[in-house]
Write a structure and sequence with these properties.
By secondary structure, the chain is of the alpha/beta class. The chain is built from 13 helices and twelve strands.
């Protein structure tokens, strides 16, 4: 970084230097709003969302009490009710709270599920409980294991359920894992299903999983990486849902919500009634003091930018935005099928906005399948990704999965991405791969 110092001075810099530092920060940073940033689901740049973030920062208030954040608290309640109705939950059930990211939302789901079955854990600790078992697919987000570790249940007690070739959890394997856990004297209590897995974008069979959860009296959570406008009412049987508007809805980071079907459970699980914040004799309905539903005290206002974008787009606008991303995924899939220098990881059409593929350089195109070819192909994606980062022309992720060597994972969430950007991506991979 030329003439850009990260060192912090003892004396204040001039305003001119501060402006230069702001420009340099953007200059050297990654432009996640660019239509050729295809590295993560949280991409794009929505001007209404940015305006909402600016107003939120200007207000600079906290979400813990109605008295300091009345409008934002009411907005959160309105948004949560709208989101619950899209899930197919009735108005008289359901609760939720906005969280700092999907990992924390998933952690909340395990926290409230444990409290639902064993409320004594709140005061007496894990020592009075049996050894609990959790279940999630082998292609689910890593936050489930991390949450089990944070909550004292242990990552080894998370059963990673086998998936089929398309990345969906196999219901029979889930039931087999539950039986195995019981044979080991563990107590099953929680199942995490995924709607749009991180790598393949696969949807677990939610109804079959719900049947198993009902049969064994287990809490069913759904970790949703899609946006629900195009998939309404698939989630009505879930006990809790993670919904991340900062993904395909394009809301500026961060914006995530945990939605819980049982009203009051979040409050019961987390409240401690600090008298300096949550007095019961205030001159308004203290149920609007939502801070005791949270494990945080200070909580950033994440709702206004989403509320403002919903006003600007409407539900139909968000649905169209998601459709555009799905169309881009299908276009990329079609282009890859037509080319001989690329190979699809999954032969079926993408279920979501994820498309996974290998680039086959000229030196490997005539080589038969086998360990030697796999070892060399494994090095292709990292090398091309490194050249991409040095050149700054486009950005896409890669990873191995199971017995599959490193492949590219293109995930669409930016509605500004056009077909010509997809064509550029494939041509650029070819150019950089042939160096």
């Amino acid at each position: 970084m030329e003439c850009f110092s990260l060192d912090l001075p003892d004396q204040p810099e001039t305003l001119e230097q501060i402006l230069v530092d702001c420009r340099d920060t953007l200059k050297y940073g990654v432009r996640t709003g660019h239509p050729r940033f295809l590295n993560q689901l949280s991409s794009g740049l929505d001007v209404v969302g940015v305006a909402g973030e600016w107003l939120t920062s200007t207000a600079n208030t906290n979400m813990f009490t109605y008295e300091v954040s009345p409008v934002f608290v009411l907005m959160e309640e309105c948004l949560l009710k709208k989101m619950q109705s899209i899930l197919g939950w009735s108005d008289d059930v359901g609760d939720g709270i906005f969280c700092p990211g999907g990992t924390i939302s998933n952690l909340y789901s395990i926290l409230v599920a444990r409290y639902h079955f064993y409320p004594e854990v709140k005061t007496r600790g894990m020592g009075v409980l049996p050894q609990l078992a959790l279940f999630t697919s082998e292609q689910s987000h890593y936050s489930v294991k991390k949450s089990a570790a944070v909550l004292g249940m242990g990552s080894e007690n998370v059963f990673m359920v086998k998936c089929d070739e398309s990345g969906k959890m196999i219901p029979a394997e889930l039931e087999s894992s539950i039986v195995t856990a019981k044979e080991k004297a563990l107590v099953p209590f929680y199942v995490n299903a995924t709607a749009g897995t991180t790598v393949y974008g696969a949807f677990d069979p939610l109804n079959a999983i719900a049947d198993i959860c009902q049969r064994y009296t287990l809490w069913m959570h759904v970790d949703v990486s899609v946006e629900l406008f195009n998939f309404k009412y698939l989630f009505s049987r879930a006990c809790s849902v993670t919904w991340n508007p900062h993904k395909m809805m394009g809301v500026p980071l961060q914006c995530s919500a945990i939605l819980v079907k049982k009203r009051g459970l979040l409050q019961e699980c987390n409240d401690f009634g600090a008298e300096y914040l949550f007095q019961t004799d205030k001159n308004y309905d203290v149920s609007y003091d939502t801070g005791d539903k949270s494990i945080q005290c200070g909580r950033h206002v994440d709702v206004f930018k989403l509320w403002l974008m919903w006003k600007a787009k409407g539900s139909e606008g968000f649905g169209s935005q998601v459709n555009k991303c799905l169309e881009n995924a299908e276009y990329l899939y079609d282009q890859l099928q037509r080319r001989t220098d690329f190979e699809l990881v999954l032969k079926n059409k993408p279920e979501h906005s994820n498309v996974c593929f290998w680039y086959i350089p000229p030196s490997l195109r005539g080589q038969p399948p086998g360990p030697d070819r796999d070892a060399r192909l494994h090095q292709v994606a990292p090398r091309i990704k490194g050249r991409m980062m040095e050149k700054g022309s486009v950005m896409i992720g890669y990873q191995p999965l199971g017995d599959k060597v490193n492949f590219f994972r293109c995930v669409f969430s930016n509605p500004a991405t056009q077909q010509e950007d997809i064509d550029f991506l494939l041509d650029e991979i070819t150019r950089l791969g042939d160096i």
